[in-house]
Specification:
There is one protein chain. The chain starts with a strand and ends in a 7-residue tail after the last helix. Helices cover 38% and strands 19% of the residues. Helix 2 runs parallel beside helix 4 and helix 6 packs parallel to helix 8. It has two domains: 196 residues, Rossmann fold (3-Layer(aba) Sandwich), CATH 3.40.50; 102 residues, UDP-galactose 4-epimerase, domain 1 (Alpha-Beta Complex), CATH 3.90.25.10. By secondary structure, the protein is α/β, with parallel strands linked by helices. A seven-stranded parallel β-sheet has the order 3-2-1-4-5-6-11, with helices on both faces. Bound molecules: uridine-5'-diphosphate-4-deoxy-4-fluoro-alpha-D-galactose (UFG). The site of uridine-5'-diphosphate-4-deoxy-4-fluoro-alpha-D-galactose has 21 residues, from helix 6 and strand 8.
């Protein structure tokens, strides 16, 4: 298939682009480079464009005879979304609408959407399955959920087939550890700990040690980026027959912040300063997935469920690119 990867120069999008190419598909990356890195784009044609540019989207879909769109281009900072909600509604909702409108105009009928566990807000039951209440507690989660609803109704009208994939904590580096996490600013736990291990930051702060968990720190379900990509590929193929797919993507296994810090210490062989601080507002104590639907319906199998193996891939990428991507 010819697949337009919106946000294909970002962390998950660049891994997906490489996965598509490796599996006999033809990826085209569409990205405005506001966050991504052109050097992370492998084996794909690159189109520099903005998602708000309807005309360019129509032209791109038409000229390249695109069969399906995968959409990773979104803002992802929870704290920023609380401070700047309209920025998030514009990029995460309005721009998703523009992509869908361009697809409708050209007649492109398959869409794979990058969604998030943040749609569940503060769940009252763990592990989380897809049918549990959607009650986001910040604009980031809300904009992803709004886009899912838009997809549902666009699908109901017979205009698109779609898969919404709700990631838990995406992490690790893919494709021989050449495609990793290079966010600016960085707010995710594993890259931040690695930066502390590399001496690039003074310490790692633990946000809250009084949670009702085994060691007092938050528990998350870490899922390797290549495992996310394999689920996208399976979902894309399943859209040949199905019109509406919604899956949680996680390992179903939780690790605490302290456990992740200890894992980075073990993998890197480095010691660094750990500072216990206040809770970060809006963090649920435990988020783990019930991904049994993706496992049974897609035949999805994760390959890198072990936190040590996941961290090893991230550690290797950070050592290959100590200053991140050059462009
Ligand atoms: N944490 C720290 N110190 C840090 C950074 C993070 O203790 O310096 C803690 C957080 O408080 C949290 C855990 O590490 O308990 C993981 O934090 P991340 O920021 O790496 O990830 P989140 O679980 O907050 O967020 C992830 C995705 C979001 C998504 C959310 C949905 O990054 O995009 O899961 O559950 F919305």
């Amino acid at each position: 298939m010819k697949v337009l990867v919106c946000g294909g120069s970002g962390y998950i999008g660049s891994n997906m682009t490489a996965t598509l190419a490796e599996n006999g598909h033809e990826p085209f990356v569409y990205d405005n480079l506001s966050k991504g890195h052109v050097s992370a784009v492998k084996d794909a044609q690159f189109i520099k464009g903005d998602l708000a540019d309807y005309e360019l989207l129509v032209k791109t879909l038409k000229e390249n005879e695109i069969d399906a769109v995968m959409h990773f281009a979104a803002f992802i900072e929870v704290g920023e979304s609380v401070a700047e909600p309209l920025k998030y509604y514009h990029n995460n909702v309005s721009n998703t609408q523009t992509v869908l409108a361009a697809m409708e105009t050209v007649g492109v009928g398959k869409f794979v959407f990058s969604s998030t566990a943040a749609v569940y807000g503060m769940p009252n039951q763990i592990p989380i399955n897809e049918d549990m209440p959607k009650d986001p507690i910040n604009p980031y989660g809300q904009t992803k959920w709004a886009s899912e609803r838009m997809l549902h109704w666009q699908c109901n009208a017979g205009k698109v087939r779609y898969a919404a994939l709700r990631y838990f904590n995406a992490c690790g580096a893919g494709h021989d550890c050449t495609l990793g996490e290079d966010h600016s600013p960085e707010s995710h736990l594993i890259p931040l700990i690695i930066q502390a291990a590399m001496g690039k930051r003074e310490d790692i702060k633990i946000f809250g040690t009084d949670y009702p968990t085994k060691d007092g720190t938050c528990i998350r379900d870490y899922i390797h980026v290549e495992d996310l990509c394999s689920a996208h590929l399976l979902a894309l193929e399943k859209l040949e027959k199905e019109k509406e797919l919604v899956y949680n993507l996680g390992n179903g296994k939780g690790y605490s912040v302290r456990e992740v810090i200890e894992t980075v210490k073990k993998v890197s062989g480095k010691n660094f300063k750990v500072v216990e601080t206040q809770r970060r507002p809006g963090d649920p104590p435990v988020l783990t997935s019930d991904a049994s639907r993706a496992i049974s319906e897609l035949g999805w199998k994760t390959k890198l469920a072990d936190i040590e193996k996941i961290v090893e891939t991230a550690w290797q990428w950070h050592n290959k690119y100590p200053n991140g991507y050059q462009d």
